[in-house]
Amino acid sequence: MTKSRLFILMLLAFAGCKKENDPVPSPEVASIVGKWRAVEYRQSRGDSTISQPLTEENSWVYEFRFDGVVLNERGYVPCCLPSVYYLNGKEFRPDRTVPAELDPSCAYSLCVACPEMKITQTSPDSLTIENCQNYFTTFVRKD
């Protein structure tokens, strides 16, 4: 009888333990949470667009965290990103309650002020990021 009571008490104690799960993504960014690899770079000049595919060696990865914070493949906030971006036309300000460090290499970067970044998700596995200088980068979801 004592063993069964002890078993029931232990079962209740373990049932009350909360598992450490990944945070729930903000609804505004849930569709883009994850890792994305750059595959194409485009620039608009006047009426023409110059397009260049990116090889794996010349590519980079961005990760959109659950709170909308953008990280590079080393887990740092990339240099020169604005604090506000537009996702599919809607303004979004990342919730920075969970700390993220700025990439240490940014100390050597001279950033041109760009107040906004536009992100358009063209399909579930493809998105385009446009900055204020008419540069477009196409990303595909990375497994």
Key structural traits:
10% helix, 1 helix, 143 residues, nine-stranded mixed beta sheet, disordered N terminus, mainly beta
Structure, described:
It is globular and about 45 Å long. The protein has one domain (23-141). The termini are far apart. The model is unreliable at 3-19 (pLDDT under 50). The protein contains 1 helix and 9 strands; from the N terminus they run αβββββββββ. It has one helix spanning 2-15; strands at residues 34-45, 48-53, 61-64, 70-72, 85-87, 90-92, 117-123, 126-131, 135-141. Strand 8 (126-131) and strand 9 form a beta hairpin. Helix content is 10%, strand content 36%. Strands 1, 2, 3, 4, 5, 6, 7, 8 and 9 form a 9-stranded mixed β-sheet that branches. With 143 residues, the protein is mostly beta strands.
What is the percentage of strand-forming residues? 35-45%
Oligomer: single chain
**What's the order of the H and E elements?**
HEEEEEEEEE
Number of strands: 9
For the termini, the CA-CA separation is 52 Å
In short, what is this structure?
It contains 1 helix and 9 strands. It has one helix at 2-15; strands at residues 34-45, 48-53, 61-64, 70-72, 85-87, 90-92, 117-123, 126-131, 135-141.
